Amino acid sequence: FCIEMKILLCSLLRPSADDGVSASTAQLVAALHLKGLFVDVATTDWGWKKSELSAVPEGVKVFPATWNNNFEFSPALLRHLRSACAGYDLIHFNSVYSFATVLGSAIARDLGKPYIVSPRGNYIPGPRASKAGVKSALRKQLFFSLLARRSLTKADLILCSSSLEAERVAVCVPGGNIAHIPNGMHCCAAGAVDADRIILDRLRISSE
């Protein structure tokens, strides 16, 4: 029999940007569509040009960001997650330091929906040469300790894109279901857990 799985991907997505998250999001959605899966993307308008906002691709919902992109705070996006999550089988959050991930994952847990968190490089530190960099690191540490940790500890799967990131996440989230799948590759032995089996079990789908 055929199951039409509905997936909600909450992620940064900028059409004209060359950042890794936007590129991998676009590629992931295209690949899932080829597999016959139904995928919607929820994102903020940070980094979008006015001309792009007038031609938003089908399946993508763009919500106004508030203040700036720090921690991706968008009340409109959060309202959408509150009303829409119940209609999906699986919810995938890109980023750890994000209000959308923190509050969206709480909504998913309340609804009993399985969810994945992809840090997308959040645990690979860059140069900290400036005071601004140190301040940003301290803000992130506080955000994680007070808000984001539960999003990861309760996630059905934490999907890392490098072995280094997987190692760092394992330190912060002991006992978490962590998988390592390099960007652009299909890795059959993805990390220390059977990523496919975890999600299939949560969706009550037989592997046969």
The rounded distance between the terminal residues' Cα atoms is 11 Å
**Regions with little confidence, pLDDT below 50 for 5+ residues:** 125-135, 187-192
Strand content: 15-25%
Question: What is the topology, as strand order, of the major beta sheet?
Answer: 3-2-1-4-5-6-7
The radius of gyration over CA amounts to 17 Å
Number of helices: 7
SS class: alpha/beta
Question: Could you describe the 3D structure shown?
Answer:
The chain is α/β, with parallel strands linked by helices and 208 residues long. It contains seven helices and seven strands; from the N terminus they run βαβαβαβαβαβαβα. It has a seven-stranded parallel beta sheet with strand order 3-2-1-4-5-6-7, with helices on both faces. Strand 6, helix 6 and strand 7 form a beta-alpha-beta unit. Helix 3 packs parallel to helix 4. About 8% of the residues have low confidence.
Comma- or semicolon-separated keywords:
single chain, about 15% strand, alpha/beta, 7 helices, seven-stranded parallel sheet, about 210 residues
Task: Describe the protein's topology.
Elements (H helix, E strand, L loop, with lengths): L5 E5 L9 H15 L3 E7 L5 H4 L6 E4 L11 H10 L5 E5 L4 H13 L3 E4 L12 H23 L3 E4 L2 H10 L5 E3 L14 H8 L6
Parallel strand pairs: 1-2, 1-4, 2-3, 4-5, 5-6, 6-7
Helix pairs in contact: 3-4, 4-5
